[in-house]
Design brief:
The chain has one domain. It is an all-alpha fold. It contains 6 helices and no strands.
């Protein structure tokens, strides 16, 4: 009887320890992610500027961002899940797809955050997302070097890069004045990566998506 009571108490203590350890680990992970984020501080008042590219609309569908956005307390766990997916994905072509999807989603999040008057976080998310765009192209390059046919992906990537440029133009037009220089700089990723993807397609004897911004 005493042995059974002792076993039950021991089991309860073990469960309590496990729950406490799990909660502590989650709190630590969240804290690490929040510390690691790039912090910006901008004025909260948007300064609209005239947009001369209203007639440009790139035919590329951005994904739904989901309910958990970067200002949500659960965001670090979502970001951790993304990192785990990238680590376990060995195929460079599939990893390129993952990076592109994550980049697209962060563009969507940045737009949502800016519209909700959170420019500091919006710019941080946008910057990280455009770096993911660069990593997507790097993984495609690895896949191509390994003999994989990435022509279809390259075409889609080139269109995605143009879409990023279009959306960032829109975001710059409604961003606070002091946030605009960083956003303009982040746009260099989509501009340069489109050119690289276009050149890769032309070298393969394929037709590249036209860049409508060249005529402006």
């Amino acid at each position: 009887m005493l042995n059974n009571l002792f076993s039950v108490k021991l089991a309860k203590l073990g469960l309590l320890f496990l729950v406490s350890f799990t909660l502590s680990s989650l709190i630590l992970i969240i804290s690490i992610f929040r510390i690691a984020e790039i912090k910006y501080v901008f004025s909260q008042s948007p300064n609209p500027t005239p947009v001369s590219k209203d007639n440009i609309s790139i035919n590329y569908s951005l994904p739904e961002g989901g309910k958990i956005e970067p200002d949500n307390l659960l965001w670090p766990l979502k970001a951790l899940r993304d990192k785990i997916l990238l680590v376990v994905t060995i195929n460079p072509a599939k990893k390129a797809d993952l990076y592109l999807m994550m980049s697209d989603k962060r563009l969507v999040y940045a737009k949502s955050l800016l519209e909700r008057r959170k420019p500091d976080l919006a710019v941080s998310v946008l910057t990280k997302g455009e770096k993911y765009l660069e990593l997507a192209h790097a993984e495609e390059r690895i896949a191509r070097q390994k003999g994989m046919n990435t022509n279809s992906y390259l075409n889609r990537f080139a269109i995605a890069a143009l879409k990023h440029r279009e959306v960032i133009d829109d975001l710059i037009s409604i961003a606070p004045e002091d946030a605009k220089p960083i956003m303009v700089k982040s746009q260099d990723y989509s501009k340069n990566l489109y050119n690289e993807a276009r050149n890769n397609l032309l070298e393969a004897g394929l037709i590249a998506p036209q860049n409508p911004f060249d005529s402006l």
